[in-house]
Amino acid sequence: MANSKLTTYLILIICFCFTVPSTAKTSTLDQEIKQQSQVQDKEPFVGVNLGTDVSDLLSATDLVSFLQVQKISHIRLYDANQDILKALAKTKIRVIISVPNNQLLAIGSSNTTSASWIDRYVVAYYPETLITGIAVGDEVLTTVPSSAPLLLPAIQSLYGALVAANLHTQIKVSTPHAASIILDTFPPSQAYFNQSLTSVMVPLLQFLSRTGSPLMMNLYPYYVFMENKGVVPLDNSLFKPLTPSKEMVDPNTLLHYTNVLDAMIDAAYVSMKNLNVTDVVVLVTESGWPSKGDSKEPYATKDNADTYNSNLIRHVLDRSGTPLHPEITSSVYIYELFNEDLRSPPVSEANWGLFYSNSTPVYLLHVSGSGTFLANDTTNQTFCIAMDGVDSKTLQTALDWACGPGRANCSEIQPGESCYQPNNVKNHASYAFDSYYQMEGKASGSCDFKGVAMITTTDPSHGSCVFPGSKMVSNKTRTVLNSTEVSGAAERLKFNTFHGSQISATTVAFCILLLIPFVTTR
């Protein structure tokens, strides 16, 4: 009986020592989330805007699961939807929340209202939900110019509330602008802010400089092209490869521009420099291309939308910067995640999304080399195949590498096997590429093969030939839900395992003292 009591007491001591660190671990989680947020946001990224004028929008939980499946790491909301903020908790997804234009008056005229807004939508969720920024209004200076005097007071008031909550270094406050606030955008060296806005822009830029916040710009090469047909070539707007003779050249700097977006970004930098601000970075809060339009918008097509957004993603992830600032690559939020079918005409207004509201892709992005990021895959079922238009010699070289040094399983494309037919290099290369891609766990860069491969959600299996990716999925339960993909820090909270670096010296010493009587009496 004495031994039983002794054993029970020892168990209680051990349980206590192993579970005490849970509070410390929660603190460690908070610190790790903050560190991850600060480090990762220093790298250029592609995010998406989430509009909600959708007739059958996913529930908040399903939406977050869908974002995780798509490997989307940054989103921007046009409000501060609390259901979505709650669902984002303990994920790696970073979010910019917004103050709608119709709330500017209340927030800009009352510090108490601002403090209440920060408490309700920021303090209540951060850091479990990675809120990285607050967008105050949207294109206020051009869409509701009467509210312009309220803009900076609202921004300053919200910032003051963040300071009071000690969150001003983690969460930046700014406001998205329409491209039209900048005049004479090409050549970029001659660009300047509309002088009628100077009284607002000067103190706003000084605030952004002082607080380390970005200049948020909504930049649409689509509209530049539509308004300047015959002057701005379509290829320049779509990031298509250009011969030197087709590149746009700034006559003042002699810098060559291969795409319209870079020119628009540099125009913003020049405009800021004209107002003596040189340390504020440009964050592109909206950019995209519509996939459908009416008769007046013939260039709003799926092919053009696919080309623009695919090339945009590649351009950002290449980290090539702009001609004026090659050392700075602006992060971009694509407009937008879903088609907003409740939008008013024209037709294009409802057709900017990458996905329909039922989560099926509007078109397949061609983002070779970016892993599963935005692979338009609603079941996480992606394949790697050879791109169209690649010459046979180049494909053969890639095929030889995949089946040789790459150690892909190429047994099924041997004579007489199920995937030998059709007997051509493109078919065989696609099978080998997918074998390697699946073997590497669909890792970023595993579907590239020097630019001759692409990711697809269309199963390339045919007849009796079953591709490796299809085999892998068929052996699993197909489900969209992917909510188990939480951060490593959050996952560790589930297990209070002993780890010296997470248990204080005081706790260890206390546990030893409790055990000494039992050691000395044995």
Q: Strands across the major sheet, in which order?
A: 5-4-3-2-1-13-12-9-6
> Which value, in Å, is the CA radius of gyration?
27 Å
Count of DSSP strands: 15
**Low-confidence parts lasting 5 or more residues at pLDDT below 50?**
11-30, 36-40, 473-508, 518-522
Determine the mean pLDDT.
Answer: 83
Overall 3D geometry?
A: globular
Give the class from helix and strand content and strand pairing.
alpha/beta
The helix content is: 25-40%
Span between termini: 16 Å
Tally the helices: what do you get? 18
Biggest sheet details: 9 strands, parallel
Bin the strand percentage.
5-15%
Describe the protein's architecture and organization.
The protein is of the alpha/beta class and 522 residues long. 39% of the residues lie in helices and 11% in strands. The protein contains 18 helices and 15 strands. It has helices spanning 2-19, 22-40, 60-69, 82-87, 104-108, 111-123, 140-143, 148-164, 198-211, 221-227, 234-237, 260-274, 302-317, 392-403, 425-439, 468-474, 488-492, 505-520, and strands spanning 46-50, 74-77, 94-99, 130-136, 172-174, 176-178, 182-183, 192-193, 215-218, 248-249, 256-257, 282-287, 332-334, 383-386, 453-456. The strands form four sheets. The protein has a nine-stranded parallel sheet with strand order 5-4-3-2-1-13-12-9-6. Helix 1 runs antiparallel to helix 18 (505-520), helix 6 (111-123) packs across helix 8 and helix 14 (392-403) packs parallel to helix 15. The two termini are 16 Å apart. Its EC number is 3.2.1.39. It is a lipid-anchor; GPI-anchor. Residues 382-467 form the X8 domain. GO terms for molecular function: glucan endo-1,3-beta-D-glucosidase activity. Residues 1-24 form the signal peptide.
